[in-house]
């Protein structure tokens, strides 16, 4: 374990990663560089500086990555209407590639030969961090303390803190929650505690980002979302940066009780787990994006996107953002978004995010053809006969030969 | 046009299909057999008998197909979590194959050589009726009056009625609505009128099956849905037939403002159209089915189902229920449903159908492995290192050779 | 039929299209522009000029499109290892989009409002020409004489020629063959005649571009093909243009009895047909391209390409080259070809095109890892245990719960 | 290591697995049960008995599994026209599930708590054996000596033999070959040696099952293969068992130089490797199966099969035969094979396996429709206009709105 000289740690400033700083210093006898990022988790990142200093860290990186996160990761993912297993909007998954990338870049800047993280050996996040790390710096050493050490209970962690003089007030906040949580601009997640019984309903005071539908206002809120090439660029006519879009939608969505989700999902490491998520802005974005696509995408590209999406979601969920297959899928997806521009009007009300209107200069909706009224010859109904006849030909031939018909 | 001797008509009893009866008799100088089915559209079917008799029809079929419809068409489709273009639950599409099948069976019983329907030349329904017809009786003659006649406006239809002594009160009810509507146990649909402008919000008095979320009760309703091999067999512990399940869920869903949908969709004939749908029961079923699958399906079969679903939805939407590709996909889907049994608990509240619990004797959720607490060795976290290392190997090799990394 | 003023005809110079010139002039009372292209069919195109002039055509386009055809259509298609229904290399399909594009461009240049072609109403080519035409000029009028006229037998055509003074020697050459043939740089095809019985073996004198394996040389020929970004750019070290590559491979392939194919295929219009094809160069290219990809593509992008290929082939076969779905798929495919560079060595011998070596500076083959000998720690075999354990986890959990195991 | 009481070993009788017997006995101090199967590898299995006895083994299983192997594994796989990465017929992959199943069954019969195999830690076979083992007996202990021991060179193995009195003549035969080989009724494979350089051509004396095309007879051999529901049941009219079919086709194929393959493939463990394969019978079967399907399958089910095949191949290659996703795909595949019956005539000549005729009572080829001659109205060419017009509609609308056209 002596061959690690310097390690860059994804440092939250919380108890667990503070213990890791110390443990890395002791176990590997190496220098630790901390990296703390604001990706919209809703907690100050600056306090991490003093904590790291107190632990003897000399190189401390604290960064605001909110815009990069939303613009380069969240938005590209939403262009595909990405959902994992029919429900999950991938809020945790999509933040990991950016963290992995910065860990490696900082390793390169500081001459570190290793990276480390605080994810457990049971979850998906270790995979996402490490696949990203290996893809971007193939010779990097990865240290995953939770897979190595014997601090396998809260008691042992506390004992370690006491022994090593790590101030435990670090952990106060977290201790109040019985849940394992993760947050960024796209979502906040909850696991563990009573959620480990999939039959048990989540307690209402667990949720942090949204009011319950019951507690939401009795009158609806309407928003108009302007898309350009598949991304939202303005809300109610006001131009916004990517992360501002999401912040604003999180606010208005959360206020209206939108975006709560309670699911059992399949982890890449092979087990099922139960998680609850709040994704207020993402829930609105997904619906709105589908709506603007419904006007502006060709049918066949839309269907092909739908067929590719589950694979794309799996790639991201499993941690392969930095992979050739993700780039390949992204190329296909982005190719379709050139004309995905226009405005979607949504009604937000007590948990419901409902599309009530959409318009676009790129619209392929042709009222003169679709109309039930006289279309002045725009569409020749007689064409339908030949269309049906030839589409039926293979079925008729088969039936004529006595093939199974029902 | 003299070569048709007898034609079986899908007869609703309404104005349009009454005109068609007369028009067929006159134009083709043939006998007309009427077929009217109760598939849960919410209107009496028995009155169609007197109307048909008044038009001189001798062979009149009036049938209650509700159970067959839900059991053999709706339920199999829901096993795949089927959604068209991310939103549409295929309420109209799934009723057509059954109608087509009965038209052909009645043609065989009555010695008819043709079938007819009242669908327009612009829509999907003509395709669905006719593909079904041809697949089940390859030599059948199909008559689609809307593609043939010149009664292209309401005025001309009325004039035809007067001229041929068809009582126009037939049409009273429909005339009240500016929308083209279609209903069965799975849904009611609305097209036309102001909906032809996709920016215009649907008027609240258009909706017929559900109250608005605003008008729904202020307290939630909980239901427990029991699944067996992928289908719901009981609600709140009460065993029900398939169509009773859907009736009951429509009622409780509609009462709670659930299942309204407003979309622009791509028709098989090549145009976009805007439609509004109410699918209260189906909306609940879909969510619940995903929830019971989340406990009982293996990850890889679940993902494969998700990848196949858009194709399966397209097959049904386009009218290919009676096709080898649908049977092939169904075989794959049904193979996965053997263990999809258990109970899902849902909370219905002002438009929201939320899963709050799920349990199953077939559950693959293993709390002893998933737990954040001590798992007593059920899962060896060290396995994750090798898992990640080998999954990363191809990425590391590529990066080591200088391949693009971001 | 009086509303067509000028029509651009895909004119081969043969009997059928010569009749079409006259028939268009007479039937539509319009001006005819002829367009004749050399796409490597192996017949002189210049003679078409005099024939067109003799028919009174004033605007005559004769063009050498061989390079454009191979570079912009054949090569992009081969990047996907495209095969239709497991066997067919799409030789006819891939030539149609280019013809359609030039027809429309010439229509735009000459102010023509219609295009016309000599394809029958039973085949795929009409679809390919017309879909291309409509996609590139939505208001164009398409005239498909074979679907309109009553010249439905050779006798009637001959009578028409005599009546209209069209020199029948035009047809001498074709008359010698009992087959319907089509040729371009990628292939020559045969349909009809005794091939209409799928049990009947093709006669040996039908084949025109290749010797039989029996007649091929008794010693093998070796070629080295240099790829750059997925396309062949040199043969045996000699840099060549795209169409020269294909010409050369056709020659050496045909000389060695390579590329004959005899299949029953499914046409887009709904029927099965039997066709024989000679694709000497294409057969070599496909194998070689797979070989260079086997060294240079990442596994997952390679597998994804394989999964998308059948759809891509279907899109091209059905005539949707000029469609958003083709562009979307092409974007994905081209994204993967950036590193598909290197050299493939092939042995050609009596019908066999065998890869015997491949090398690349972009190779991802890592001998130090793959070796059966001592790898000096490049690969840690112990990683495999964790890899297998976690991949097995879902299966073990299911088996532990008594799930079906075989 | 003391917790293993009895282990079932996949025992070939060769040097490596003989060493493993001794090593297991020593290292785990446990009883070893040997299992040796004839799956058509072309070597006597009975001699393994004496060798095992000499090593002190008391429970010795020697079985002829050839029929089960071909009937229940090879044939189902060929129904899907399964090819991995465009080239490989999965000869090794498909034999592993059967071995794994018998290992587990024997473990259950003999009360063993572990299984063991002689596959290395770098290859796919370890994965296939172990995934199968875990899927069929979730609590089984798997011992993979090559991942555990330090006998990492031939010299160390020899020293171990000497030390433990294991007769080295066991290894004589294998020592003659510089290649790592594996064989069963479907194929024989070669890896290692000079093949580790992908540019080097395989030496001609490496190949064991087939003559070179050059050495094959100068006159072709014709065979007629009778299919029933997707499987070959007779050759030249003679009814045969599944394994007899493959034996016979291997003979006639090998005699005609058919089935040699030289590829670089992507292993599941993340590296590329170069392998050479001889699959004479399989190569013929694949072609023939496609041919009988070309007559008897509907177009859309055929295309869907082609789209699913790469996934199905990956599932088998990666070792997931005993998985829900394989069963799901198999259900879809088998559903399509009900009518895949008939006769295919093939010409075998110097490496070429060419389809020259196919016939079937289930044929969907309709000569009366497909004919270039007068079809007596079986097909109405005018239908094609409407077919094309409506298929073009979406493209025309898009072009009319100024969308990108090329």
UniProtKB/TrEMBL annotation, chains A, B, C, D:
Top class in the EC scheme: ligase
A Pfam family assignment: Arginosuc_syn_C
Pathway the protein contributes to: Amino-acid biosynthesis; L-arginine biosynthesis; L-arginine from L-ornithine and carbamoyl phosphate: step 2/3
The entry's keywords: Amino-acid biosynthesis, Arginine biosynthesis, ATP-binding, Cytoplasm, Ligase, Nucleotide-binding
GO CC annotation: cytoplasm
GO biological process, one term: L-arginine biosynthetic process
Entry EC no(s): 6.3.4.5
Protein name stated in the entry: Argininosuccinate synthase
């Amino acid at each position: 374990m002596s061959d690690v000289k310097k390690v860059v740690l994804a440092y939250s400033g919380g108890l667990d990663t503070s213990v890791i700083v110390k443990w890395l210093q002791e176990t590997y006898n190496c220098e630790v560089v901390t990296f703390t990022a604001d990706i919209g988790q809703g907690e100050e990142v600056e306090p991490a500086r003093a904590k790291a200093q107190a632990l003897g860290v000399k190189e401390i990186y604290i960064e605001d990555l909110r815009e990069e996160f939303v613009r380069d990761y969240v938005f590209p993912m939403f262009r595909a209407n990405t959902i994992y297993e029919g429900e999950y909007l991938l809020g945790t998954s999509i933040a990991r590639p950016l963290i992995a990338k910065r860990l490696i870049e900082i390793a390169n800047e500081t001459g570190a030969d290793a990276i480390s993280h605080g994810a457990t050996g049971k979850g998906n996040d270790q995979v996402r961090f490490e696949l990203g790390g290996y893809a971007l710096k193939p010779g990097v050493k990865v240290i995953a303390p939770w897979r190595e050490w014997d601090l396998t209970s809260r008691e042992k962690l506390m004992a370690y803190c006491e022994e090593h003089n790590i101030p435990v007030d670090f952990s106060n906040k977290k201790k109040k929650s019985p849940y394992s949580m993760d947050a960024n601009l796209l979502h906040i997640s909850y696991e563990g505690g009573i959620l480990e019984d999939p039959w048990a309903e989540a307690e209402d005071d667990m949720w942090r980002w949204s009011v319950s539908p019951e507690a939401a206002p009795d009158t609806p809120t309407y928003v108009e979302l302007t898309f350009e090439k598949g991304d939202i660029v303005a809300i109610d006519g006001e131009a916004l940066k990517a992360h501002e879009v999401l912040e604003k939608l999180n606010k208005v969505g959360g206020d209206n009780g939108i975006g709560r989700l309670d699911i059992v999902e399949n982890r890449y490491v092979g087990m099922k787990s139960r998680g609850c998520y709040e994704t207020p802005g993402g829930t609105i974005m997904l619906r709105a994006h589908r709506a603007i696509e419904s006007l502006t995408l060709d049918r066949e590209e839309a269907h092909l996107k739908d067929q590719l999406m589950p694979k794309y979601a799996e790639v991201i969920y499993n941690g392969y953002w930095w992979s050739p297959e993700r780039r390949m899928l992204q190329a296909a997806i982005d190719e379709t978004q050139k004309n995905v521009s226009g405005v979607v009007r949504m009604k937000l009300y007590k948990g419901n995010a409902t599309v009530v209107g959409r318009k676009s200069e790129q619209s392929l909706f042709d009222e003169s053809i679709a109309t039930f009224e006289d279309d002045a010859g725009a569409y020749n109904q007689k064409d339908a006969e030949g269309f049906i006849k030839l589409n039926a030909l293979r079925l008729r031939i088969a039936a004529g030969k006595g093939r199974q018909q029902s």
